[in-house]
Amino acid sequence: MPVTDAASYELAFHVLPTVAEGEVATVFQSLKDTITKAGGTLVSEEAPEHFELAYDIVRQLEGRNRKFSSAYFGWVRFTLVPEKLAEVSEAVDGTKELLRHLLIRLTKMEEANPFLFHEALAAQKQFETIDAVAAPVKPKPAGPAPVEKVADGDATAEKVE
Fold this sequence. Notes:
Layout: E1 7-15, H1 21-37, E2 41-61, E3 64-80, H2 85-93, E4 98-105, H3 108-112, H4 117-133, E5 147-152, E6 155-160
Antiparallel strand pairs: 1-3, 1-4, 2-3, 5-6
């Protein structure tokens, strides 16, 4: 079977918040090691950082359902021959420290423009802080603009502001 050229992939993941903060880096390194063991080449990454989830995620752990409202989020981009992707996917599926993950093949546009989640989140928080300090702006009234009658010789015209 001929080996095809490598393709670009991204593995995005949530590490369970129950994993000790000092062990999150170990989980991340383990995922990267899985990729390189399969013959992949790491391209870029964003180490997992703790953040609040947009909604609760339920996961069965130790025989019972548990709700999680936060997690450590990170991602890694890599190149790999497609024939080895199943090997990486199977290893990631078996990583018990992950709350969830997503493994996708990147388009050329996505490959050229990585989205830095933690950087974007920090920028958003900075804007929220600025907005909270700024004076409130009086909203414009809804509906059509006010109409003012203007006398124009014999006829009356409407002036819209």
